[in-house]
Specification:
A two-stranded antiparallel sheet has the order 1-2. By secondary structure, the protein is mainly alpha-helical. It has one domain (10-137). It has five helices and two strands, in the order E-H-H-H-H-E-H. The longest helix is centred in the middle third of the chain and has 33 residues, at 55-87. The chain has helices at residues 12-32, 36-49, 55-87, 94-122, 130-139, and strands at 2-5, 125-128.
Length: 146
């Protein structure tokens, strides 16, 4: 994660709406681990509602959406694999437990990034997640603008 200092002051509404995107993604993640699509759709719904606000708010809402998309992909693989094992004669393999460990670590890292991002936004900073920010920087205009 890269954290940038903005040249302009964020107003309280921008800080609140942008940091809330990460808080919502965390709450939805915890509530939807068994149903990963619900977490993604909840964060996506929040981002769509916030489209009318500043580029800064849009940027962070969409950054939270893309992080939830990654969680959706990895948890869907895990649940699909689990269902296949339970419905067939397949055994729980060492690879399955390695993937489970990877998934737990991935979700912990994503959660830590979300908490740090929400905190940094409240401090008036602009956290950018490495892979996601490369995509968003090309699609969302300057976050310095209102």
């Amino acid at each position: 994660m890269q954290i940038e200092q903005l040249s302009r002051q964020l107003d309280a509404t921008e800080k609140q709406k942008a940091s809330l995107a990460y808080v919502i993604s965390l709450v939805v993640l915890i509530a939807s681990v068994p149903l990963p699509l619900a977490g993604f759709l909840g964060t996506l719904g929040y981002a769509k509602v916030q489209e009318k606000y500043s580029n800064f708010v849009k940027y962070h809402c969409w950054q939270a959406v893309f992080s939830q998309l990654l969680v959706l992909i990895f948890t869907s693989i895990f649940w699909g694999w689990s269902v296949r094992i339970l419905l067939t004669t397949q055994e729980f393999t060492q690879d399955y437990f390695y993937y489970l460990g990877f998934l737990v670590v991935f979700i912990l890292i994503e959660s830590i990034f979300a908490i740090v991002s929400a905190y940094q936004i409240e401090k008036g900073r602009h956290p950018k997640w490495w892979v996601i920010s490369a995509f968003l920087d090309q699609r969302i205009e300057d976050v310095e603008k209102n």
